[in-house]
Amino acid sequence: MTKYYEDLSVGDRFPFGEYDVTDEEIREFAGKYDPQPFHLDAEAAADSVFGELVASGWHTASISMRLLVDHAFDDIAIVGGRGIDDLRWHRPIYPGETLSGSAEVVAKPEDGLRDTRGNVDFEITITKPDGSVAMSYVTLSMVRRRESP
Amino acid sequence: MTKYYEDLSVGDRFPFGEYDVTDEEIREFAGKYDPQPFHLDAEAAADSVFGELVASGWHTASISMRLLVDHAFDDIAIVGGRGIDDLRWHRPIYPGETLSGSAEVVAKPEDGLRDTRGNVDFEITITKPDGSVAMSYVTLSMVRRRESP
């Protein structure tokens, strides 16, 4: 059942499913949007701080959005996004890793309250197969109110 | 000529080229990474706050990375990214718009200084065809030092 602004509380948590990150998809994304050598070429990556091919940080962020849409936003009346705070890439993502994570409501800033919608901030955590955190950020969303005119 | 950490100063500015955002690419990106109705379906978008189909915010962010790599990072000895601060989507991106923008060095935080690299923060601005700002953020990068061991 669709959740509206009034249905969301700080502390609500939405666990994600899984996403397999393939070598092919890492290269495809990087070729389009982040053609730095360590995202495209194994030899160049061997000479980088990463030691081997790694996913673009924006690729990991895009994957996190897919997990968020499939496992949280699919049941929330999302109006749109305002922005992102404090995005950090804690650990690189290597080909063949399976990512998961969660979204948690961390704030409902009152200054964004309108007749039709309110602001809801979710902390996103993306984890590697060993459970360590690969990426985290806070996404600033707008959610429709139940009693929208 | 490659620019190292020592070659970059606060205030240095790198103007971007242009990137055409097509309807097809908006739907392709959204289908993979952000399948919310207002990024995929014109009818659903007409009922949204956007009024018509709009690019995923993560798509705009990924495009900004391509502009950054092609017009700034191509001449800078980038080691990798630490994270993103204060990303804001100021205006939606519609199909057929051409994006541009710039990167500007806004800080060289001393606490990140190592023998091999230093931290350099760039403010990224993405503009619409009318010159208005569509998106902005600060990207926290690591840049190789000229005298790396």
Write structural notes for this entry.
The structure is a homodimer of 149-residue chains. Chain A is an alpha+beta fold and 149 residues long. Helix content of chain A is 23%, strand content 34%. The first copy, chain A, has 4 helices and 6 strands; from the N terminus they run ββααααββββ. Chain A has helices spanning 23-33, 37-40, 42-46, 57-71; strands spanning 13-15, 19-20, 78-89, 98-107, 117-127, 133-144. In chain A, strands 1, 2, 3, 4, 5 and 6 form a 6-stranded antiparallel β-sheet that branches. In chain A, strand 5 and strand 6 form a beta hairpin. Chains A and B meet through helix 1, helix 4 and strand 3 of A and helix 1, helix 4 and strand 3 of B.
Q: Which helices and strands appear, and what pairs or packs with what?
A:
Two copies of one chain form a homodimer.
Chain A: E1 13-15, E2 19-20, H1 23-33, H2 37-40, H3 42-46, H4 57-71, E3 78-89, E4 98-107, E5 117-127, E6 133-144
